[in-house]
Amino acid sequence: MTTATETKCACPKCSCMVSLETAIIADGKPYCSQACADGHPEGSTGCKKSGCGCG
């Protein structure tokens, strides 16, 4: 049996894949960055990953 080590970032507009070992966990969900985990407060957009425009 294999165990998944990567999953999609839980931010709904983010397309990044994140390693479960390095993910930022918020409310039990994995996020690729602190901005995503915080829900992009104060109008911040994007997670600073190349080519991702989440926000």
UniProtKB/TrEMBL annotation:
Pfam families xrefs: Metallothio_Pro
Gene Ontology molecular function: metal ion binding
UniProt entry keywords in alphabetical sequence: Metal-binding, Metal-thiolate cluster
Xref: InterPro entries: Metalthion_dom_sf, Metalthion_fam14_prok
Protein name according to UniProt: Metallothionein
Organism: Pseudanabaena cinerea FACHB-1277
